[in-house]
Amino acid sequence: MEELIISIDNLKEIARELFNNDCRVIGTTAENKFKVIDDPEQLILNPNSVPTGSSFKEFFFPKTEPLFFYKQNNSSIDLIDPVIDKSRIVVIGAKPCDAAALPIISKVFNWDYKDDLFNTRNDNSLIIGMSCHYNDEFCFCNDVGGSPENRKGSDVFLKPLADNYFKAASVTPKGEAFIKEYQKYFEKDLGKNKPLVRKEENPNHFDYDKVKTWLDNNFENKFWDTAGEMCLGCAQCAFVCPTCHCFDIVDEQNGSCAGRRAKNWDACQFSLFTKHASGHNPRDNQEKRYRQRISHKFKYYNDKFDEILCTGCGRCSRGCPVSLDILQIVEEINSLSQKSNAI
Amino acid sequence: MEEKFEPKIAAFVCNWCTYTGADLAGTSRLKQEANARLIRVPCTGRIDPVFIIKAFENGADGVLISGCHPGDCHYNAGNFHARRRWILFKNLLDFIGIDSSRLYFSWVSASEGKKWVDIVDGVIDAVRAKGPFKQYKKMNKEIEIPVAAEEGVSVK
Amino acid sequence: MNELKQICKDALSEKKARFIIGYKEDKNKRIKPFIAKTPEDAEQLTFNHHAVNNLAVYLPRFKNNVEGKIGIVVKSCDLKAVTALIQENQIKRDDLFIIGVNCSGVVLDIAKEFNKDNTQIKCKYCQAKTPPYYDALADESKDFEMPDDDQAELMAKIDKMTSDERLEFWNAEFEKCIKCYACRQVCPMCYCEKCIVEKSEPQWIDTSSTARGNFSWNIIRAFHMAGRCIGCHECERACPMGIPLTLLTRKMGMVASSEFGYRHGMSLTEPTLIGTYSTSDKEDFIK
Ligand code: SF4
Ligand code: SF4
Ligand code: SF4
Ligand code: SF4
Ligand code: SF4
User: Fold this and answer.
1) ipTM (interface predicted TM)
2) Which residues of C touch B88 (CB under 8 A)?
3) Which CATH number among 1.10.3470, 3.10.450, 3.30.230, 3.40.50 corresponds to the domain B9-142?
4) Quick one: which of A139, C25, C33, C275 is 20 to 30 A from A194 by CA?
5) Three-state SS for A139?
6) Cβ contact (<8 Å) for A82 and B153?
């Protein structure tokens, strides 16, 4: 297949066309936040930028959404399904650590119950990923099976070239169809624009297999007494994370005879998360809740779905009010695993 | 033709003074407008500001709070505690953008049936003039049944 | 800093404190909260411009678990939270071993260097760089350049708005809220075992991040902070959505002081604002 390139201006033109065709175009703007783009000029694709404060999961799995509405109708109750927004979602310029999250959480949303709400959006989406030239002390994509060039989760993948050009390649049939659809905006690569290169390779921090084996054998370990000791149990980490997917279901009234049942983000760091109706709470302190967070990410999800529930984006650590750094915690586990030989 | 707007007023009143005063207004057959829904609480000290918020959430265009005159509280100091809270809450609401044209306070004793009528009518008139509390109702949008969804009603 | 280490080491080895809640530097040079349990741990304790956390937030955890004193490292502003917790009967003065540090200002953004533009506004109004009381005192405070108070400008701007404009302003801010409750969890004054938003019979505040749920949550949180907020700025720092939360709590602090001449966390014995009343409180708004 011939190699294609595209200029930033043409990407904006695609965004404009998509927007005019009632697509939801998601991209990053000058504030470095994922937003629905209504003015393509706002769109900024910067491979050197730090991952956004929040991931773009809210466009697939919103912070709150209705499951159904109810209304009293004389002696019966009407149940009304919400309208699922079927418009196409196109994310432009997702970092590999963002894009990779969708196929990971898709597994849990299609496990024993197929979540229509998530699936509709996911099926109608197209992800344009872009290789990443950023790296800081919180990043660790290459330790969890990713890399700054990883195409997992992307349908089309861009590589930055000189003079605001990008090398474009389709990753999935969906991406191929997309490039065909908008082929007038792509140009043949004549090798004029040199690829931009990363300044340095990302360092490696830990050996995932060793960490996993340690976690398999150390549910009760005194390490957990101090690992999450300073955690405050806010859920900043879970809510900004691209792979955290827990939700709560609540009923909410509107006036006296109507209301809705809603699905809201929830997180294992909340003390109420595991509290039983009886009052008993199996995870009755923050240390246990923190152990759950780490174990779910690096063990349970892998046991169940063969995926690490973390893409190494480092968001949770960048934003943690007490600077609890997930990478440092896993590194500690890594060194413990070397000492104890996993027993 | 536009229908005349009839405001909904939630009135939180204490059991011992204002509720009895309102009762007196009734037994004395004084005429008053019917837009206020009375919610009886043991004491103004029992009124958590979250009640006021809840009233607005459920469609109130105005809220009236009324209790015993200072010194007359059945529980001695409930209304003094309440007054302090109101000062703070009123200032907070004001800073957030819900001003005193939506929130009213009064002291009405068990013998002031006439005062109660005057206050209620005054509040209703003022809120009617102000119009519906659209800005707050707008916040309910996500909880309301979307019009497009109504068609596919499934009955249980 | 060595002085701080020495004080803490001695306090731990002489059993003046069971453990010490302080700050340490991690391998990325970030300052984070840390509990030193042994004299050796005390070696890791440190303090500098990046020690922003208000460690008083950890105290209510030990409310029912006091055997031997709890050591805590505090800046002058953090001490207000400690005082407030004592006033509100959450902890006893006698159960604490307070290690005051002389402070020379703290940063706004922990990822950046300390300078005039990266200094918290509270530092500008700090009346005592030395905590007013303590069991031990460490460090020297140095002069530093005061930041501009752009929050006061914003507040003046809001004061000039009409009610509708204000409502619109706050709605646009609250809309961003994702209900992570980080603002509550970092707040030393939010220690309720069951927060009002967790009360579900009935559900007073919607847990959903709808416009309605966010509005109610943020108003009620601000109300619960009225006259109780000690101005540590932790809520706003922790909010991942960048909502100007201290604008509200600061405003309420100003109301508490103008209406009642009250400031929380300034005296160990004064009754709390909401816990008491005066027969002469203003009532010109009550008919
Ligand atoms: S790890 Fe940090 S962000 Fe996550 S709950 Fe704990 S304190 Fe909050
Ligand atoms: S756990 Fe942290 S590093 Fe991993 S995906 Fe979530 S936010 Fe990113
Ligand atoms: S409300 Fe915010 S500024 Fe006030 S005490 Fe709590 S965390 Fe500190
Ligand atoms: S918001 Fe109010 S109820 Fe919730 S923890 Fe804070 S003070 Fe307590
Ligand atoms: S920290 Fe910010 S986003 Fe989180 S609940 Fe508080 S106001 Fe909302």
Assistant:
1) 0.91
2) 223, 226-227, 252, 255-256, 259, 274
3) 3.40.50
4) A139
5) coil
6) no
Identify whether the C-beta of residue B18 lies closer than 8 Å to the C-beta of residue B45. no
Q: Provide the 3-class DSSP secondary structure of residue A326.
A: helix
Which residues contact residue A304 at a Cβ distance below 8 angstroms, ignoring those fewer than 6 apart? Answer: A111
- Domain hosting residue A141, numbered range: 4-61+71-188
The pLDDT of residue A342: 44
Ligand 3 site: residues with CB under 6 angstroms?
C 186-189, 225, 229-235, 246, 249
Q: Model's pTM, two decimal places?
A: 0.93
Q: For residue C197, give the nearest of C209, C189, C211 by alpha carbon.
A: C209
**pLDDT surpasses 90 at B122:** yes
**pLDDT per residue of chain C (287 residues) written in tens, 0 to 9:** 678 999 999 999 999 999 999 999 999 889 999 999 999 999 999 999 999 999 999 999 888 776 889 999 999 999 999 999 999 999 999 999 999 999 999 999 999 999 989 999 999 888 888 999 999 999 877 888 888 899 999 999 999 999 999 999 999 999 999 999 999 999 999 999 899 999 888 889 999 999 999 999 999 999 999 999 999 999 999 999 999 999 999 999 999 999 999 999 999 999 999 999 999 898 888 88
Work out the average pLDDT over A227-256.
93
Looking at the complex, does the CB of residue B42 fall below 8 Å from at least one CB of chain C? no
Among protein residues, the one whose CA lies closest to atom 7 of ligand 4:
C190
Any domain includes A29: yes
Ligand nearest to the CA of C183: 5
Kindly state whether residues C9 and C116 are assigned to the same domain.
yes
pLDDT of residue B154: 53
Nearest-CA neighbor of C217 among C205, C230, C208?
Answer: C205
Ligand 4, from C194, C195, C199, C225: best to mutate by most atoms within 8 Å of Cβ? C195
Query: Is there a domain that residue C276 lies in?
Result: no
- The verdict on residue C287 lying in a domain is no
Do C193 and C132 share a domain, yes or no? no
Pocket test of ligand 1: the residue of A320, A326, A329 to mutate, having most ligand atoms within 8 Å of its CB, is A320
Instruction: Tell me which residue range forms the domain holding C31.
Output: 2-139
N-terminal to C-terminal alpha carbon distance within chain B: 38
Q: Is residue A30 part of a domain?
A: yes
A320 lines ligand 1 (CB under 6 A): yes
Query: Does A80 contact B154 at a Cβ distance shorter than 8 Å?
Result: yes
Which candidate from B70, B77, B140 shows the least CB-CB separation from C212? B140
- Is the CB of residue C137 below 6 angstroms from any atom belonging to ligand 4? no
On whether both C6 and C135 belong to a single domain, the answer is: yes
C50 within a domain of the structure (yes/no): yes
Select the more confidently predicted residue: B145 or C220: C220
Residue A276 and residue A323 in one domain: yes
CB A234 within 8 A of CB C181: yes
Which residue from A76, A83, A255 is facing B149, i.e. has the nearest CB?
A83
Helices (DSSP H) in C94-190: which residue ranges?
121-125, 150-160, 163-174, 182-185
Residue C171 Cα to ligand 5 midpoint, Å, equals 14
Which is nearest to A261 in space by CA: A247, A240, A241?
Answer: A247
Number of domains in chain A: 2
Label residue A343 by pLDDT band (50, 70, 90): very low
| Nearest CA, atom 4, ligand 3 | C229
Q: How many CA atoms lie within 13 A of C143 on its CB side?
A: 1
Contact between C213 and A64 using a beta-carbon 8 Å cutoff: yes
Atom of ligand 1 nearest to the CA of A233: 5
pLDDT for B2 beyond 70 = no
Higher pLDDT, C129 or A107: A107
pLDDT of residue A341: 55
Q: How far apart are CA A287 and CA A89, in angstroms?
A: 39
